[in-house]
Amino acid sequence: MKFGKVDRPELIDFSMPMDHKNTETLIKNLNDTDAFTVHVGCAKWNKQDLKNFYPRGTKDELSYYSRQFNCIELNATFYRIFPTETYQKWKEKTPENFTFFPKIVQNVSHLRRLNEHAYPVLQNYLDVTSNLEQKLGTLFLQMHSNFSPKDWNRVVHFVENWPKEFRLAIEFRHTDWFNDEKVAQELYQLLEENGIANILVDTAGRRDLMHMRLTNDEAFIRFVGANHKSDYSRLDDWITRLNEWKSLGLKKINFFVHQNMELESPLLSAYFIRKLNKKWGCDLKIPNTLLDPPSLF
């Protein structure tokens, strides 16, 4: 993930912002009877990107990956709509407790930019993606960096007409969605009223995306390591913040680990899972890695 990449990460202030003033209130008002779930995974499973992860001779990468992690942030579905048979194979290859979090195809978000021509494409996408059945988690929509509030009406129509049988999270990247307070408040209210997650992106060059505003019962976090030793202290900060949210009543946590240059995302993930297990007494599997203990830098 090149988005938010900087040449000198040691110069970035990675201190975590305080929560948005409405986040605590939202969490405290959630249904406290829901089961607690936590998912931690990478964005891809291919061997070319996940260096030092697959044992020599591994032939079925998804089968191996899905027995090390309990989820995948499925970026492949951003680039094209796969046939039904592909989704069925993915479902069959993975364990019962594995969850896919697919990115919505770029024809909807980037090429048609939520206009009226995006909806037939979206319906086709949802038809095939639904073949993941019980292994389908939250879908997420990532808007282009130049998609700005001038297209507010498109966002309203999309959100209000989203089929409620699918969980949805949205990532907005244009700075005006967050730097204009009036726009931000209207956006947060729209997402909250429609039960849609407001994605948090922790990346070096775009600290404004750490808005710390949750809008439903889910923390959907995309963490982008800077290939620097600070990646570990940033993960420590996330453990602290997620623990605060959990104490308030948050029940759904989905955390996906990227790097600006995908080298050792599984190592960062393994470090994070160890910390979670120790903090919460979880029994999440710690992924096997070929470099252990983690020693990226």
TrEMBL record:
Name the InterPro entries for this protein.
DUF72, UPF0759_sf
The family database entries (Gene3D superfamilies) matched by this protein are listed as:
Protein of unknown function UPF0759 (3.20.20.410)
Pfam family membership, one: DUF72
Under the heading PANTHER family, the entry gives:
UNCHARACTERIZED PROTEIN YECE, UPF0759 PROTEIN YECE
Q: What is this protein called?
A: DUF72 domain-containing protein
